[in-house]
Design brief:
378 residues, 3-stranded antiparallel β-sheet, 9 helices, alpha+beta
Amino acid sequence: MACALDPGNLDSDSESSESFDEAWQADLALIRELTRQEKQAEDDRILAARLAGVTLDEIPENVRKMAILTEDHHNTIKRKVIKNNATTDFTTKKTNHESILMKCAVCMELVSKNDPRVPCGHAYCIGCLKELFTTSMQDETLMPPRCCRKEIPTDLARLTLKETEDFNAKRLEYSTIDRLYCSQPTCSTFIPPSLIIDSIGTCPNSKCRTTTCAICKGASHGNLDCPKDDDTAALLAAAKEAGWTRCYRCRAVVELTHGCYHITCRCRAEFCYLCSTPWKNCPCAQWDEARLIEEARVRTARVPLAHLRQVNVGLNLQERVNQMVNQLRNDHECQHTAWAYTRGGGRCEECRDYLPQYLYRCQRCHLMACNRCRRNRF
């Protein structure tokens, strides 16, 4: 999703372009060697996973193979340069690693000077940025839209008036604590706090206007007090029996599948899984020991074997796992600020999407994530 480049943007920089090509040729041998080392590190990672007894997603061999720059692949681009009212042809070589123009942080296509730059400094093509905003209206984990933990101003996405109204409405919904929705199943429209009076909410949908009890979330009871909500009680009893908990902010039911007891809900609230108290406000343990050891085994398997040999000289696999246990116990609140490109693909731990060719590995906690999540979710 990249915009077409305006020939006017490629001004008379022929000398710098040629200089770049010469520098690229000089570094090509080094880049080839680094690429081979990266492929070896990926093979080591797969071997380590097998030794640790960790099952990896099956990846077709044809998508695992990637270019190792063993050939000189150049594309010749002819550009028309206008200088002193004279039009001349300008030819330059373009390689797979050309960096004269900025690339979109998501789709990696070249962007024009008219495409937006977000507060963290990354460039986005307008298509990807607009998609981020529209997707955030369906996926609460992307709201508010952000890159590198910095919120992206709405005006950069160039939304239409209708899209802006819908976005602001969704932002209000997702930021509301203990939300109320219309009790009419065929409607279920969000009822903003401004339409809740004396614990009774009125549906804003002009074709509905159903009133809903803000206490039990069911149809309003007129002048009667709210009775016991048997359905909700049954649901919460089943959740408690399964060991699930409930977000103190949006009241969503949450299940812990891996990691520590520090939960970040889809509404961005952080709390303890054991007692639902806002994070760091309770004396509960932060890890289940069995779950901690299993997580350490998985994360140890993700680290390239060459890296393990450098930092853990002389340690066997179990000793490396024990070292990872201590690292997770003391440093489990990773901010994910440094990432390493990892070949081979797999499943993103945040959105659970499967990517066949590559993922990014957090260099601190070794969490695996897709490009979208590392930019826009963490």
